[in-house]
Amino acid sequence: MSATHDAAHSDHGGAGLKLYFAVFAALLVGTWLTVWVAGRDFGVWNTPIALAIACTKAALVLLYFMHVRWSSRVVWMAAAIGFVFLVILLAFTLSDYFTRDWLEIYSAPLKSR
Amino acid sequence: MTAPSASTAPSFAPRDNYLTADYSWRSWLLTVDHKRIGILYLLSVTGFFFLGGLFAVLLRLELATPQGDLVQAETYNKLFTMHGLVMIFFFLVPSIPGVLGNFFVPIMIGAKDMAFPRLNLLSWYVYMIGGLVSFLAIITGGVDTGWTFYAPYSSTYANSNVALTAVGVFITGFSSILTGLNIIVTVHKMRAPGMTWFRMPLFVWAHYATSVIMVLGTPVLAITILLLALERLFHIGIFDPKLGGDPVLFQHLFWFYSHPAVYIMILPAMGVISELVAAFSRKRIFGYSFVAFSSLAIAVLGFLVWGHHMFLSGQSVYAGVVFSVLSFLVAIPSAVKVFNWSATLYKGSVQLSTPMMYVIGFLGLFTIGGLTGLFLACLGLDVHVHDTYFVVAHFHYIMVGGAVMAFLGGIHYWWPKMFGKMYPEGLGKVSAVVIFIGFNLTFFPQFLLGYLGMPRRYHAYPEEFGVLNVLSSAGASILGIGYLLPMAYLLWSLRYGAEAEQNPWGAKGLEWEKAPTPPPTFNFDATPVVTQEAYAYADDLPPEESRTQARLV
Amino acid sequence: MSDSYGGHGALAHHFEDLEQQREAHTLGMWAFLVTEILFFGGLFAAYVVYRSAYPEAFANASNQLDPVLGGINTAVLIGSSFTMVLAVHAAQQRRKWAIFGWLWATIVLGTAFLGVKYVEYHHKWEHHLIPGPNFLFEGQPGGSEQLFFALYFSMTGLHAFHMVIGAGILVWLSVLALKGRFDEPGRNAVEMTGLYWHFVDLVWIFLFPLLYLLGRHQ
Amino acid sequence: MSPLSGFFALAVQTYPGSGNAPLFPPSASTISGEVDALYWFLIGVSVFFSALICALVIGFSVRFRRRPGVHATPIEGSMALELLWTVVPLGIAMVIFIWGAKVYFRTVKVPSNAMQIDITGKQWMWKAQHPTGQREINDLHVPVGVPIKLRMISEDVIHSYFIPAFRIKRDVVPGRYSSAWFEATEPGEYHLFCAEYCGTKHSQMIGRVYALDPVEYQRWLSGTVAGETPKQAGEKLFASLRCDTCHNAQSGARGPDLAGLWGSEVELRSGGSVRFDADYVRESILNPAAKIVKGYEPLMPSYSGQVSEEQMLALIAYLESLSAPQGAKDRP
């Protein structure tokens, strides 16, 4: 019973090699794109673009190299939960730093009173 | 392994079980049997509990008088730090998952063992190595930063074994990760046929939720402690205000783990209470799915509230408001659980044996502990009570009144299954009452001290706080005696205790009905097939009674 | 089918069948990778907080790094990820020599990466950019630039440490491959190590733009 | 047990203060009444629910204790009850949250007519600097009925300025200013504690807060020798550190003119803006290259190590006075 599973797993074997080459090429292009994008100024969009490229590269590695695409649902969930809680850590920590000076805890500025 | 199939008749004939399988030291120290690893954890966790308890007794003796005259200020600071460190990282976090979780999660879901038996043994060894390193740090001078290690005191100004203790705690963190990882995979992949998620005992649900927190939270503590050690050893300046580093950032990273850690300590206790309430009222837990989902809700919401430790630390006011409202939300699932446990007793058949006395103690004290948490989550009040004895009383009501009570209740409840011997019922009840009285006398006065404004971690305090502190110290000595009693009679019962039947409480659950007492190395003679719901006490009733499934209002 | 090594592979005593065992190993590996995500996550949180507080200092400090070397290293690591995938693919087809070959290709690329890292660290050593008492940035001691380098060395140091561990495991696997360990079904050690290696590559994919490519906009 | 009971008998006997053992702190500030009201509301809620749970648990345990022949009635659950004990606690929780947030904002929003006192915390003592020049160690004399704003900073580790009688507490963090305010209502002598663990003598870092009625306060002011006010000290420092060579009103000055900037948003060279407040002044003096004003070059040398925290507070008081319309700020 397990032998059939291995075959099923690698039935995309033939296609797998081509797929792996494609993903490898895409990652190299992504790296070049990251460097090229960093060299040009998109104003406020610099960081979002850089992060978007990095995330797509990461997604490629996750889905194809790490076989998440053909894994069971619980493995999908495990991978997702790791990144969700990383975002929670970043979001709540930054929510403190970005809103620290909203409140004028000093005596109100002279001009507005 | 050709023992007769486990008939329901109590089998007193000495059978091959996990204890008698092999008596050599090697078989214990190199065991991969989850039950033996649970016993190893029981021994080491009890050792650390009494070490932490020794520090607590010294603290209370010092605080019996306003002047700091029993020990120097430096020694007192080391005592409360090491009391915190030992009790949290070496007792509360590993105790219930390490002992009862390791022993019973596989049996309750019908598995032969944990998913990764060798990792399970590694978890105990990593725990002992971390314990050894921390014990070395304690012996060679101790650490005086508080268990919270706040920078910049811990990173720059303290001159005690901060780096060595940090390494010890860093290592122990991996033991927690390995246990959590093991339980998650076991629950997902190793349930017996028929054991669906909603037929699992609530003890397993609670341990699954705890393991999710262990796996998600502990690494952030690891990196924070690692950065602290790097700062101590190489002065890289990561939290150094002179370079623009922010001590509040240390608090964010520290509390991201350390608040969910308090749920690591209390969720397994809730799992034990669910089992005990069901068994001793011979009834299915009221609102089973609500209690199960509230465990998961606590695990997830527990990660969104850490800012309530930092309302006054210079954290932004608006972030404080967000953390405050989320802290109130995380209190709701705990309230749901307490109401459901109480409702389970309604129309039950309640047997007041020792474990049930610990349950009643838990319900009262955990309710008080939980409600006083609302005082601290409330922004306006936290300004006054933060870092005072109100906080100390709050978390001791949850940790000692809740987690330790549940641990003792669980130990008494499963003692016959683990060792095949019954504990002495009378002594059990006496020690439960002594612990309850000693506990309340120790920690209730601290609520008053807290609102009076007595700060935490004070070696000497103003005269007017004297009487309440004397009461608290008196309570501590009663509590200390109370904890020695179970240690004594449980050890005594191993030799002289009455033989235990396979199911002394007549309880439901694979560990009682299918596994012999004490269970063989692979738990069951044949892999059980589960056909009943969890806590299916109704199936034992004579036909006409079980039909009147009353649905309340 | 009992397993003589007492290690992974063939049917461990407590699993029902190879499929359950493989699923358990995969989920266990992923649970471990979740802890790694959050382990590095703490450093990313510190990085994001300090960079948003001191954008100029971080940009100046980042300009001390050589993006060309960083770019090459990224390509090397992606290459090693690719050879790792081929090794896992070979393991599924139980071709002993292919496994051995691709594992060593991965090891060589990984070592190349560590070599480049050593060159970069040495360059920092010469320019007094190691965060600590004798840190100098453009002749000035201490300043927020030291925070950048504290994070740079923590992140890339931790990443390199994970690379060393990974390379060690790959060498051990190649030895096992020669001993015929992966000739029977049910052996998924190569696949699990592959997951770990791809994760280490994943971390670098984020580290490279965040550390090397700051303030390069003209 | 005899040694322990003997010890306690001795402790209670010899302990002089056992006479006045208060169970509730004095209420001596405008906010303390509201905080106490919130406290008693929460005590009420807690007593109610604790009593409810105890009654249910003990009542059911006794009423439905195990008796031979009597079986437990199987009950699955009840959606209505589950909703009840989810929504009701949620409602109560939100009431507490909103009330608590309102009280909290009252303790954080500083009235603009507050008199500012600069507090510097260092390992194991508090130093207070009054605007009128008085300096105090560990103690604080404040007039009743006048809102007092504390601008606080630590020279080493994190401390926390805690006056239980006024129900205020605020961490004093190194590297950043933190602020708290109160308005005393009852004259008297109250405790001052450090509430954040700060090392060996954390429990000695305490003091006394004297709330004096206005007459008494004037007598204290005149009775103590007043050094130079922070503004005067700041002015002298501004000159002695030669800040004015760059920061002056002439056109083409190498540094921005600092008069009139206080509290306004300042554009930065790297884009974005920052409020010109105490934190920005302090950061620019110690780490000038961090945030440079648009249109200026990073020429300013770092003064870290040359300016103590008290001198920094004096400079800030001077710069603040530069932006005030004449005479508005000089109040006792």
Report on this structure.
The complex is a heterotetramer of chains A (113), B (553), C (218) and D (332). In chain A, 73% of the residues lie in helices and 0% in strands. Chain A contains four helices and no strands. The radius of gyration of chain A is 22 Å and the shape is flat. Chain A starts with a helix and ends in a 15-residue tail after the last helix. Chain B is globular, with a radius of gyration of 23 Å. Chain C has 218 residues and is mostly helical. Chain C has one domain (18-212): Four Helix Bundle (Hemerythrin (Met), subunit A), CATH 1.20.120.80. Helix content of chain C is 73%, strand content 2%. Chain C is built from six helices and two strands. In chain C, helix 2 crosses helix 5, helix 3 (67-92) packs antiparallel against helix 4 (96-126) and helix 5 runs antiparallel to helix 6. Chains in contact: A-B, A-C, A-D, B-C, B-D, C-D. The interface between B and D is large, with 116 and 103 residues.
Offer a quick outline of the entry.
Chain B has helices at 25-29, 34-63, 73-92, 95-108, 117-139, 153-157, 162-189, 202-234, 247-281, 288-301, 317-345, 354-377, 379-385, 389-419, 425-452, 466-496, 510-513, 543-547.
Query: Strand content of the residues of chain B, in percent?
Result: under 5%
Rg over alpha carbons of chain D:
28 Å
Terminus-to-terminus distance of chain B = 52 Å
Counting helices, strands and paired strands, the structural category of chain D is: alpha+beta
**Sequence stretches where pLDDT stays below 50 over 5 or more residues of chain D:** 326-332
The total count of helices of chain B amounts to 18
- Helix and strand element order of chain B: HHHHHHHHHHHHHHHHHH
Extended strand count of chain B: 0
- Biggest sheet details of chain B: none
What percent strand of chain D?
15-25%
Jot down its keywords:
heterotetramer; B: mainly alpha; Cytochrome C Oxidase, Chain A; 18 helices; disordered C terminus; C: mainly alpha; Four Helix Bundle (Hemerythrin (Met), subunit A); two-stranded antiparallel ribbon; 6 helices; 2 strands; elongated; disordered N terminus
